[in-house]
TrEMBL record:
Coiled-coil boundaries: none
An annotated GO cellular component: plasma membrane
Localization, UniProt: Cell inner membrane
Native source species: Emticicia agri
Protein name from the UniProt record: proton-translocating NAD(P)(+) transhydrogenase
Purpose: The transhydrogenation between NADH and NADP is coupled to respiration and ATP hydrolysis and functions as a proton pump across the membrane.
Catalytic activity: NAD(+) + NADPH + H(+)(in) = NADH + NADP(+) + H(+)(out)
EC number: 7.1.1.1
Length: 101
């Protein structure tokens, strides 16, 4: 229990930034019209590509005995990859609509 309290005490500023960024993200995405969601997904693909690379770098620098960090890194890589692939699939379908038949 003391580990959790000390962790929270040492990283309280980062926790505030995380919580505020979640609220700002929800507000920004909530105000986007439905017509723009698919083009914005294309931009999000690039961001998630950075997330995948970052998760891989973190996993490479994690000790082999830290199973929790490795598992979370693996989940981050898998979810980021699914998001990138899904985003490109949706973008491809959107661009197919604009091709002449």
């Amino acid at each position: 229990m003391n580990d959790i309290v000390s962790f929270l005490g040492e990283n309280i500023e980062m926790i505030y930034i995380l919580v505020l960024s979640v609220f700002v993200g929800v507000e920004v995405i909530g105000k986007v019209p439905a017509v723009l969601h698919t083009p914005l997904m294309s931009g999000a693909n690039a961001i998630h590509g950075v997330v995948i690379v970052g998760a891989i770098i973190v996993m490479l620098n994690t000790p082999a005995d830290n199973i929790l960090a490795l598992a979370l890194g693996f989940v981050a890589v898998v979810l980021g990859t699914l998001n990138v692939v899904g985003g490109f699939a949706v973008t491809d379908r959107m661009l197919e609509m604009f091709k002449k038949k």
